[in-house]
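Anyone up for a design puzzle?
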């Protein structure tokens, strides 16, 4: 079984990031998957790439969702990775 690398990109003072954090936590907890959060504030490359799309969910380095996290879509994506 493959282990997905789930990263939530966020920035300071972002109300959507708070909602996204909760959504990612719910989905990953249900599936027993770990996730990390990375703030883009101190990374100019990430700021340039994702500034207008934050929050962003990356699964195995691929952008899967942004702004409002679709929990059903994230669940499907993670299940596919877990099934290999």
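Challenge accepted. My sequence:
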């Amino acid at each position: 079984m493959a282990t997905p690398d789930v990263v939530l990109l966020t920035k300071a003072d972002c109300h959507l990031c708070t909602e996204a954090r909760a959504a990612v936590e719910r989905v990953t907890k249900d599936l027993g998957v770990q996730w990390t959060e990375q703030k883009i504030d101190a990374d100019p490359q990430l700021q340039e790439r994702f500034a207008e799309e934050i929050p962003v969910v990356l699964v195995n380095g691929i952008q899967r969702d942004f702004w409002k996290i679709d929990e059903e879509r994230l669940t499907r994506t993670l299940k596919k990775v877990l099934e290999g």
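A detail worth pointing out: The first helix runs from residue 15 to 31.
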